[in-house]
Amino acid sequence: MEMQGAKIRRRGRPPKRLNEHSDTREMLLRAGVGILTEKGFCATGIDEILRGVGVPKGSFYHYFDSKEAFGAELIDRYGVYFALKLQRHFDDQSRSHLERLKAFVSDACSGMAKYGYLRGCLIGNLGQEMGALPPSYADKLRSVFVDWQERVARCLLAAQRAGEISANIDCEQGAVFFWIGWEGAVLRAKLERQPTALTIFSDVFFAGLNCR
What we know:
Layout: H1 16-39, H2 46-53, H3 60-63, H4 67-90, H5 97-114, H6 122-128, H7 136-161, H8 171-192, H9 196-208
């Protein structure tokens, strides 16, 4: 039966206008991550982000309801990004479990060096600004840290079962300690524009895992 006047939706790529909207939104999120890891939320203006991707002033609210909504999505995006980075190392069957954690640390150090130690951790940066941020961010930031901690705890537990670290280590507590110390080391490295704090923390942390 013919359907006269009806428009048939063709398969394939979505309309160009939708692609452009999605691409611009993605560029804004990427620019936001870069700027916020360097300057923080409060010191970053929407205009600066727009200029960075060549989007006309005033167009921001076409893609996001507010700066608060934008920041909330950046937290989610960065949390997932870093979780995938962790898991990529922790799933590396060519290394021992402890070497997988060390490989992540080395990778993260290289990432800071790549940007001249100007960029830190977006989650850590926002945590330091919490007094001036929307209250809704607190639970989001906490959830991200808990997820990262649980991944490190599982890696440490696997290393412990394999006899790579001391049986006396509390792996969950060790994972919490790792992130508390790592975020502090990242902050210090960013402040000093050098990796010394990262090296000191990681050396002491891994040495402590072998205490009998």
